[in-house]
Amino acid sequence: MPSSARMPVTALLGANMFFSGITYAATMPYASLVGVDTLGMSPGWFATIMAVGSVLGTFLSLYLGYLSDKLPDRRILVLIAALGGVAGHGLIYLWPTQTGFTIAMALLMPIGFTCFSQCFAYVRVYYSKHMPGRADFMVTALRTVFTIAWVVVPPAAGWVAAEFSIFDVYLASSLSYAAVAGIFLALMSDKSTHVHVPPPVRAEGASLLSTFALPLGVLAGLTGLIVMSMAMRILSFTVPLFIVTDLDGTVTDVGFYAGITALAEVPCMLFWGWLTTKLTKETLLAAAGLVIALFLALASALTNMTVFYWLLILNGLGTAALMSINISYIQEAIKGRVGLSTSLMDVVAIAGNLLGATAFGVLTSGGDYRFALMVGAGVAVIGAGIMLGGNPGRLGRLRPQPVAS
């Protein structure tokens, strides 16, 4: 951190990532349980709500990413996104009905879910200015803090949901979004934390669409990530219901499932981080998709929770790569446009959410969660195949960079 800063910026950004982690860790494992099991929605209607929110979120994220590179202070967008999260998850807590859930997830949370990528866009720009040699490391380190929240929060949230009300997890998320807003308000009080990187100027006569141009290999990579994210969404929607129906587990087991997966992710992220110095990101992301496919295929054949808990090591290994390596991969997609590139994180996640929610609604309409997991495994393999097939020249070991003469 630069000596001119008047506040502990890295500590505040770390706290911000932890609270951001709570917003996901406290609610994501329980979304389908709340919508389908508690509020009585059909899987199809639940999937429709999530799909509508995903479509809206895709366009909103792209617009905010484009706007963030033009605004003099991108922290304003973080505040707006955080307040959307406060309103969305707060509404589910205050009005726990199908109507409240529909309004929150289809209209308000598309705003809130952009908070994650907008935070990372600020992190990248801040450290690129103040610590250019450690920017990648700081992004990874802060992403690890986000993961730590997934270690400690889901078991606690599962206990709260079992002992009190499952809607209390949405209160925890709403308050965490408020904490994120408070942290960025504090950062805005210090002029040294204001950073802005002007985007590259479009060539004369170039259209606005040229801003979004992507090389074919990158486009294939992003498509592969979307398909693998679809598999991850099928996993996250289906596994909680699979636990309580097919494996005779409880809501508390759902919390432990999420927590153990996150605990496995922490050392796995370090392992994948080491591998990024040896192998290309395309190779590693495709390998992660195949690991997720193996987990889903094996889980679909289980009949008890004990073996399932052991399989979570595979889940943590695959998820660690798809949730960490993807950040630096996506942020390099559009050269010189950090905000717009980072917004593609939301596009990938939201598109995967849309496809995954639709698949979940179709595959589980008859209550067969095992079949949904098997299809999810196939989807993960397809995503890895797209990543590999679209980048044949980027597979294997890292190539030495040419030395400028």
Overall 3D shape: globular
Beta-strand percentage range:
under 5%
Q: Can you count the beta strands? A: 0
Q: What count of helical segments does DSSP give?
A: 14
| Proportion in helices | over 70%
List low-pLDDT spans. 1-5, 205-210
Q: Could you say what the CATH architecture is?
A: Up-down Bundle
Please compute the radius of gyration using only Cα atoms: 20 Å
Largest sheet, in brief, is: none
Q: How many domains make up the coordinates? A: 1
**What would the CATH topology be?**
Growth Hormone, Chain: A
> What is the H-and-E element order?
HHHHHHHHHHHHHH
Subcellular location: Cell membrane
Domain Major facilitator superfamily (MFS) profile: 217-405
Family: Belongs to the major facilitator superfamily. Set transporter family.
GO molecular function: transmembrane transporter activity
Explain what you see.
This protein is an all-alpha fold and about 400 residues long. It has a single domain (about 10-195, about 215-395), classed as Up-down Bundle (Growth Hormone, Chain: A). The protein is about 75% helix and about 0% strand. The protein is built from 14 helices and no strands. Helix 4 runs antiparallel to helix 5 (about 100-110), helix 9 packs across helix 13 (about 340-365) and helix 12 (about 305-330) packs antiparallel against helix 13. The longest helix is centred in the middle third of the chain and has 30 residues, at about 215-245. The two termini are about 35 Å apart.
